[in-house]
Amino acid sequence: MNAPIFTDPLVARHSQRLISSYRRWTGRRLIPDDVPPAAQAEYLFQLSSPVLSHGVEADPILNYGNASALRLWEMTWETFTRTPSRLTAEPDAREDRARLLAEAATRGFLDHYRGIRISGSGRRFLIEGAVVWTVLDEHACIIGQAATFDRWTSVT
Questions:
Q1: 116: Cβ–Cβ under 8 A, 6 or more apart, which residues?
Q2: Which helix (H) or strand (E) is 43 found in, with range?
Q3: Is residue 120 exposed (0-12), middle (13-18) or buried (19+ Cβ within 10 Å)?
Q4: Quick check: pTM over 0.70?
Q5: How many helices and strands, by DSSP H and E, does the chain display?
Q6: From CA 136, how far away is CA 116, in angstroms rounded?
């Protein structure tokens, strides 16, 4: 049996970067302070709110999705982490999405993002109240962007 993905050292380190970058930019906690460091990657992965991120490639590729994000996008970890993040938005909404991601990169984060997304099966859903933030490594170098949200509804 395969070990859970959050036990992979690279995924655990990325989880820490997501958590610390969120706190740096927003001043808020993505997970409770009392979660021990050794348990933070699992806690983040099991969080009921979707959490996802992409890298800094010219056409950014998704590089993290917690269990809630994987369910919502109807993808396995392997498929999700090979998907260009632009493909999670409808083609006619990609320009607006790119503009908002650029704003988040300039400010460090933005609150209250909303937009229609597309799952792996083509199901459309509206996300609301999303926080998008810049992900930094331990040297404060930008390594990507992440998002989390609590509200989503199916769109017909």
A1: 89, 90, 93, 124, 125, 126, 127, 155
A2: helix 40-46
A3: middle
A4: yes
A5: 5, 6
A6: 26
Q: Is 150 left (phi over 0), alpha (psi -120 to 50) or beta?
A: alpha
5-155 adopts what CATH topology?
Beta-Lactamase (3.30.450)
The three-state secondary structure class of 103 is: helix
Rounded to whole angstroms, how far apart are CA atoms 3 and 155? 35
Identity of the residue numbered 155: V
Residue type at position 60: P
Could you report the per-residue pLDDT of 87-130, keeping only the tens digit for each? 998 777 667 777 777 787 788 999 988 999 999 999 999 999 99
Domain definitions of the chain by residue range: 5-155
Q: How far is CA 135 from the centre of its chain?
A: 10
Look at residues 137, 111, 104 and name the one whose alpha carbon lies nearest to residue 16.
Answer: 137
